[in-house]
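for the recovery benchmark. tokens below, seq after
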């Protein structure tokens, strides 16, 4: 008979030992990665365009192209760089508005501003991704693009978003930083919109240390992005582009990162399939727990299996629920805590809220092409804050074994029934 007294009230914790702290590709770095990076170093050719035939960066591009079915892939130095390249690729600039969700990493909004456009913040729905109904409400004459963000490995409602984009003649840039390898109705995330942008930063599903990837079906989008990613692109691939060169910067990936990324790519399907099996079991066995509502995915089969989320009835129950789970030995967190400035939640995007800028004239905010009346307030997306405020989330380790998952199930039931 399991102990009914919650560990937080002095009972015996459900978990008999700490759960493994193994999350994503970074935790699995091993001899293969060490060998691949060492081999890259031994070539003494770290610049990706020095020996194009043997470039590991080029190989990583080929792998992402193959995964997504996109004929064009561009390796870059980070997810933010991928977003900037992608936005420039599809032609976003001064005067444009890009609709972003109120729940995403601040870099999504920052990339829009760097391109001279401004982010317009839309609500999320209980898929924890952008709410298509609110996207439609946020469209103005200046709207050029929608940026669905597949947060925490959860696919956005891409059918609804692509339908809105078609009807309003908008472009779609997918932020896949947190959902590498995920899919929506059988299509890989990143391949559905006009452009898809991945991150290979340390905390993502697979990593190159730092790094990112942009994929697209459109040659011109790729060419514009490639020009932006390297100020001398026309020298490395002379004559290849039909696009007239314009100023770029340096978003290049190097060969050590490329080599690391290729080995990590080889781990992707295994990480996803282990996480998905765990999440499927949690979903099935916790479907009937009173007082909590499980997160509903837009495509459970396409989820990355890196998180398990559920909602409690009121926001004053969220923190106690998560704390009680932690006391049972189950690492659980909340998505919105008024005391903790989390850069994934729009009220904590200070430079957006305050319309701050690097530019002494205040651009892009002050550009005459932008709406001078646009305001940002912490309460502008109340539905988003309500949903996040009621979410309890467990980050799922791909290394959980059956007994660990048993404990998670027992602990969630125990807390739901006894708190
Ligand atoms: C991590 C992340 C980014 C930025 O990626 P970097 O590689 O850190 O530049 C962008 N969007 C989302 C949703 C992210 O999680």
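predicted aa per position
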């Amino acid at each position: 008979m399991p102990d009914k007294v919650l560990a937080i009230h002095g009972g015996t914790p459900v978990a008999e030992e700490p759960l493994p702290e193994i999350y994503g590709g970074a935790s699995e770095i091993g001899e293969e990665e060490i060998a691949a990076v060492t081999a890259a170093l031994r070539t003494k050719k770290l610049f990706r365009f020095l020996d194009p035939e043997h470039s590991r960066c080029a190989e990583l591009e080929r792998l992402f192209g193959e995964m997504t079915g996109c004929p064009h892939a561009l390796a870059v130095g980070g997810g933010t760089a991928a977003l900037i390249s992608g936005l420039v690729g599809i032609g976003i600039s001064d005067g444009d508005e890009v609709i972003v969700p109120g729940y995403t990493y601040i870099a999504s909004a920052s990339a829009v501003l760097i391109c001279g456009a401004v982010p317009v913040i839309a609500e999320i729905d209980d898929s924890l991704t952008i709410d298509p109904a609110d996207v439609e409400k946020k469209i103005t004459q200046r709207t050029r693009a929608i940026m669905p963000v597949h947060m925490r490995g959860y696919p956005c409602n891409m059918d609804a978003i692509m339908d809105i984009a078609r009807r309003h003649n908008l472009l779609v840039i997918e932020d896949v930083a947190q959902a590498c390898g995920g899919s929506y109705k059988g299509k890989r995330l990143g391949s559905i919109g006009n452009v898809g942008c991945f991150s290979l930063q340390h905390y993502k599903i697979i990593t190159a240390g730092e790094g990112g990837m942009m994929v697209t079906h459109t040659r011109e989008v790729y060419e514009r992005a490639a020009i932006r990613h390297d100020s001398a692109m026309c020298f490395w691939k002379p004559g290849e582009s039909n696009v007239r060169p314009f100023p770029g910067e340096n978003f290049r990936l190097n060969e050590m990162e490329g080599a690391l990324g290729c080995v990590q790519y080889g781990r992707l399907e295994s990480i996803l399939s282990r996480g998905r099996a765990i999440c499927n079991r949690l979903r099935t066995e916790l479907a009937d727990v009173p007082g909590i509502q499980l997160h509903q995915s837009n495509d459970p089969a396409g989820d990355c299996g890196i998180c398990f989320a559920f909602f409690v009835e009121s926001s004053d129950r969220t923190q106690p629920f998560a704390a009680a789970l932690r006391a049972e030995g189950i690492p659980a967190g909340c998505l919105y805590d008024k005391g903790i400035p989390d850069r994934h939640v729009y009220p904590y995007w200070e430079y957006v809220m305050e319309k701050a800028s690097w530019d002494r004239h205040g651009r892009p905010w002050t550009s005459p092409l932008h709406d001078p009346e646009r305001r940002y307030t912490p309460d502008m997306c109340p539905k988003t804050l309500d949903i996040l405020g009621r979410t309890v989330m467990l980050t799922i380790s791909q290394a959980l074994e059956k007994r660990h998952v048993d404990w998670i199930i027992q602990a969630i039931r125990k807390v739901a029934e006894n708190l």
